[in-house]
Amino acid sequence: MEEALMRAVVVYESMFGNTRLVAETIAEALSGEMEVRLVRATSNVDVGLKDVDLLVVGSPTHAWGLPRPATRRGGPGYVRKPGSGLALEPGADSSPGVREWLATVGDFHMCGAAFDTRINKSAALTGRASRSIARSLQRHGIAMAVPPESFRVDRKNHLLAGEIDRARAWAVRLGAAVLSQGTTRR
Ligand SMILES: Cc1cc2nc3c(=O)[nH]c(=O)nc-3n(C[C@H](O)[C@H](O)[C@H](O)COP(=O)(O)O)c2cc1C
Known about the structure:
The chain has a single domain (7-181), classed as Flavodoxin domain (Rossmann fold, 3-Layer(aba) Sandwich), CATH 3.40.50.360. 33% of the residues lie in helices and 19% in strands. The chain has helices spanning 18-30, 69-72, 75-80, 98-102, 123-126, 129-139, 163-181, and strands at 7-12, 35-40, 54-60, 111-119, 143-144, 149-153. Strands 1, 2, 3, 4, 5 and 6 form a 6-stranded parallel sheet that branches. Helix 1 links the parallel strand 1 (7-12) and strand 2 (35-40). The chain is globular. The two termini are 20 Å apart. The mean pLDDT is 94. The structure holds flavin mononucleotide. Flavin mononucleotide (FMN) binds at residues 14-19, 60-64, 71, 74-75, 78, 117-119, 126-127, 153, 157.
């Protein structure tokens, strides 16, 4: 009998599109091996985590951690700066995101992984949203398949060259780690 394809969900938040691009890359890389859904986080989206083997969650780093309403309201100011080259993701300055969505997630037995985007400096200076995401997932009973990962932007909030390739490689490693464990669905 043919084995059922594993199922993954990639949930993300993004202000200027960088984290969305990373999330799309991860989803595409995983889709070689699994059935994958890509979902933008809002607190009222019902992601449907039943029968999911792998949950990947990613967000930009704001004020050393996960975006919150006050930091999101700062987004349009960055876009308006002359020559910013930035565009706001629709509703990103006013919608809830990963922080609020994580608060609605129940307890699940599955594999998880966390990523963020952040400025290209030491994590001690920048903070890392992926740490908060990983901690939250673990509190929900989700086991981290690989350590949290950061993808870097420059000081003008544009992804650095090579980060999309690094995201693809991270997703391939993640997929292999989850497949080697077999299905964890209960
Ligand atoms: C209000 C605000 C606060 C930020 N705070 C931090 C921070 O504390 N550390 C950091 O590394 N980057 C910080 N950044 C940069 C973001 O991490 C960067 O804009 C993000 O990774 C880009 O991803 P996105 O295009 O998906 O929003 C901040 C950006 C904004 C808009």
